[in-house]
Amino acid sequence: MMDLEALKSDLMARIDAAGDVAALEDIRVSALGKKGEITAQMKQLGGLDPEARKAAGQALNALKDVIAGALDAKKSGFADAELNARLAAEAIDVSQSPRPRKVGRLHPITQTIDEIIDIFGQMGFVWAEGPEVEDDWHNFTALNMPTDHPARQMQDTFYMNGHSGDEGSLVLRTHTSPVQIRTMLKEKPPIRVIVPGRTFRSDSDATHTPMFHQVEGLVIDKTSNMAQLKGCLLEFCRTFFRAPDLTLQFRPSYFPFTEPSAEVDIRCDRSGGKLVIGEGDDWLEVLGSGMVNPRVLEACGLDPEEYQGFAFGLGIERLAMLKYGIPDLRTFFDGDVRWLQHYGFEPHLLPSLVRGR
User: Fold this and answer.
1) What's the CATH number of domain 109-343, 3.30.565.10, 3.30.930.10, 1.10.10.10, 3.40.190.10?
2) Per-residue pLDDT tens for 191-244?
3) Which of 82, 137, 191, 299 could make an SS bond with 141 (beta carbons 3.0 to 4.6 A apart)?
């Protein structure tokens, strides 16, 4: 048997001098492996008498435990040192502003809807929505549209399978106005809602698509009037187009669900091959509006002698095209990522005053 104290001192010195985990593993194998120094001493116990075997075995087991413990302690120290180095290298200064991360882009339609809702929300309008599959009564009849109105024809309206324009037919809504009807049936005045959503009509060219987006506004109370409608739309257009001196022109028109009705034009300049909103001597139509027809109020159970209101409707794609210079309506729905990278918007980081996000 070799001197165990000398062996212990040698192994402990080598463990202390080890510079990494790999060196520790070499020491473990040389001491405790199948051909290790301590293992070799254990194999010699069979040649000793019983008393000497017992004493030597106890000493070797104690040495084995000491060396194994020293190896584990040293290895743990290496792990702690590695972790500390990694934490130091990957440390983040939380007092610094976060670096912006590109997580995608907002579609111009989404951007425009958010802008419209925010502007009208600050005027006290509340967001509302309704089903995209509507019945004939909510989509046409309650809005004072006669049975022979062109919009009811199958070449203009998408009827669901098994429906052909008779009473009770189901259609893909042709406008967001049915939400106005549902709101008046469900809520008591005063009512002040803004209704964005998808609508559907059988039409497709550079300025029309079978599916498009509208936003409509509705105000019902006892004192609303045409002057308030004009002021509301003037404030919206000036804010949306960022043109504080923008001028509006109201032209008499006809809509079944409003009386009187008016088309709204904004002042613009088309000279030089460019469209500049808020300047020049030209006019551009942007929306329709009017006072709610008394027949619509009666259809919703409201007394037109007591209540009155105004409504307006805007095409969201049209507004986006005007504001952001998008030439063709159909490109909104092509799904071309390159187009979205050009016209898309970085997601808002600041919370909305209306939606709180």
Assistant:
1) 3.30.930.10
2) 999 999 999 987 766 566 788 899 999 999 999 999 999 999 999 999 999 999
3) 137
Query: Looking at residue 48, what DSSP letter applies?
Result: S
Per-residue pLDDT, averaged over 106-125, amounts to 92
3-state SS track over 246-301: CCEEEEEEEECCEEEEEEEEEEEECHHHCCEECCCCEEEEEEEEEEECHHHHHHCC
Q: Measure the CA–CA gap between 242 and 39, rounded to whole angstroms.
A: 86
Radius of gyration of the chain (CA): 40
The token duo for 97 is 């502003």
Q: Backbone dihedral region of 194: left (phi > 0), alpha (psi from -120 to 50 degrees) or beta?
A: beta
pTM value surpassing 0.90: no
First to last CA, the chain: 79
